[in-house]
Amino acid sequence: MYRTIAQLDAAIDSLATTKPDLCTKFALQNSFEGRPIFALRLRAGGGTDRRGVLMVGGMHARELMNPDAIIELAFDLVQAYTSHAGLAYGGATWTPDDVRILMETQDIWLLPCANPDGRNHVMKPGGVWFWRMNRRDNPNTPCDGVDVNRNCDFMWRVIGPTTSCDPCSSLQTFVGSLPFSESEANNIHLLCDTQRIDLFVDVHSFSGFVLYPWGHAPTQTTQPLPNFTDLLMGFCRPLDPPSHQEFMPPADLSEYQTVSNRIKNAIAAVQGSNYVVKTIYQVYNGTTTGTSTDYVYSRHIANPALRKTFAYSFETGPEIPGDIQHSFQPVDPEPIKNDTKAGLIALMHQSICVFSFLGETLQSGSVDSIRAARDEVLLTSENGRAWVDLVNDIQIELAVIVLSDKALTERALTLMSRVQELAANKDRATVTADDVRDGVDFLESLRSRVKRVELGDAISVVIEHLQKGDGQTVEAILKNLTQSTPPRYK
Amino acid sequence: MEEGQGGNDALLATRFDATIHPGSNSDKKDWADALDVDRVPARDGEVRALLTLQDLVRLLEQGFEVRLFRAYGAEPLNPALIMPDEVFKNWLDDQVNTLKAKPDPKPLIDRDL
Question: Best residue in B20, B109, B113 to probe A by mutation, most A CBs within 10 Å?
């Protein structure tokens, strides 16, 4: 069954009042019909400049499952965290430590229902189950509604098979009178402008897709220019030139594909659902513009002063042949909501970066040079990406060991500062014998504390590489690393 | 309202679950780009949409082939699919009571380093 707007709001209220130290309610701009729109922030453990994840549901009114899934996920996370318990959806499981690190190292922002007027219209007497847009009264037309996922400031008013400038079009995808003219879309813009958001997902239905940019054109990784900032927009014309393909740096594409596949695998572990990974453009094999996902990812390109946010979209639930209504609104949405929740946790899991947490959140410093060394040296080769994957796989287990021991945490912070300094001059500064000794000592301390043999073995391989680092630059050490394959680890 | 007007209105408001095929437009590479219909994501790349009666007539006149699978009335969500307030209250009470019974844990991470 599906919750009403009043019920979703009451659920947010309850979390914020029952666990005020963990859950904070934020009132955003009201909807067109004046309904309040709320976001919820989950934050455990205090601290500032934490990485942030923003999860949005209900932009399209008829896609009813996702606001329920997101609000249930909030309760599941808070229940698990306060009980020091893990989480399980079918065969997809997370340990109590996974939950602790999720909750304590980042801010989890939830906007369960971005378009409450639309949801209300789907449910209320006199409404229609297939309503997609908000309830904007478009002046001088008999036609109501703006598609809030075509109203974002990205290639706005460039039309395509699912984007229209005509409020009375059968498309149900009217772009609105201005970019972000609709508060239901503008709230995403406001959250991205005022909060640190490193990862974003907009949850839609249906057909079982995990999607990433771009939506306006096919994605390519070889020609940076011209990019979308050079293209005409705002004239209610198709993409010009029609053959344009939008650039994405290879490291970003690799990140999108890796993370999307991890999400797909987490969803498959629940009950065997086979989600498909693709770009937004590929969903309709045509130009889709003004979407939240493209907007959020494009921000750092349109304005290089802004932080890069990796942005995804889900299309949850299977396509039921010959029954669109129950594809949008299945009689029993519970299994699909479990898939969605598992996918969202997998996404949040990918947002965790222990290096960022130590360097930025705990030390109020920067890890930009470490990030740049990763992007420039490791993410440009297959072996390098495999090493990054290994670190992603083991970082939570190691983080729990480090962070639960104050002395070990202090040693990690000292090492982080030194690595940041070396990485800032990665082609000149050389690693000293003392650096090697400190790093090996630290890793041996970790190895003595790990419980699983394969994790200890993985650390041993890293120690072997580090021991060869005396007198070398960081760049040389990382390049040597890419000559080898990382140990198999599960 | 004249007799029969209600039925006519209902028909005009009906939506059809349909797939659209190029028909006589098969020589046009981008035939699906300007259909002006309410597209829904389709798993296997088909062009699937919710059509109005007017959409259907227009597409047929334009030479497209349209396969209809189901007709839907312009009605709100089946009320049986909306969570009754009592069920919601019980769910929320369960959640809140469980949470109230647990103190916030001491964070793993010591911020005073």
Answer: B109
Q: What's the CA angle centered on A403, arms A397 and A408, to 5 degrees?
A: 105
> Chain B contacts of A65, Cβ < 8 Å?
none
Q: Are B107 and A44 in contact (CB under 8 A)?
A: yes
Partner B, chain A 390-409, Cβ-Cβ below 8 Å = 400, 403-404, 406, 409
Q: Is the pLDDT of residue A19 over 50?
A: yes
Pairing of strands A38-42, A51-57: unpaired
Instruction: Count the helix, strand and coil residues of chain B and give each as a percent rounded to the nearest 5.
Output: 35, 20, 45
Candidate from A132, A160, A406 with C-beta closest to B33: A160
Indicate yes or no: CB of A129 within 8 angstroms of CB of B113. no
Q: Which of A91, A57, A94 is nearest to A349 (CA)?
A: A94
Phi, psi of A415 (to 5 degrees): -65, -40
**CA proximity to A11, closest of B78, B85, B81:** B85
The closest alpha carbon to A278, from A257, A258, A294, A251, belongs to: A257
Cβ of residue A4 closer than 8 Å to a chain B Cβ: yes
Q: Give the ipTM of the model, two decimals please.
A: 0.93
- Whole-model pTM: value is 0.94
From chain A, the residues in CB contact with B76 under 8 A are 122-129
